[in-house]
Amino acid sequence: MLNSTAAQTRPLSRLPFFLTLVSALLLASGCGLFGTHQKVQVPRLLTPLAEADTSRMISEVNRLAAVALYSR
Question: Can you tell me the distance from the alpha carbon of 42 to that of 53, in angstroms, rounded to the nearest whole number?
């Protein structure tokens, strides 16, 4: 006859190993979450190279649209 107490204690002896393995995996996967804050340098925006009125801007947009149309 099989010893019924040995069959019941065997899964309980694996429980600490399983909990240690799960906690180690959780801690290892979360290592990158803390302490990785870096300041990002954003380049400053360029100032306008030339002042233009509305008619000049419309003519430039039309010129660029014509170039894009012919480049297809």
Answer: 29
| Residue 42: CA count within 13 A, CB half-sphere | 3
32 is written with which tokens?
Answer: 């990158």
Average pLDDT score over residue span 42-69: 85
In tens, the pLDDT along 29-40 reads 765 666 666 788
Per residue, the 3-state secondary structure of 7-30, as one string, reads: HHHHHHHHHHHHHHHHHHHHHHHC
Q: Is the pTM of this model over 0.85?
A: no
52 CB-near residues (< 8 Å, 6+ apart): 60
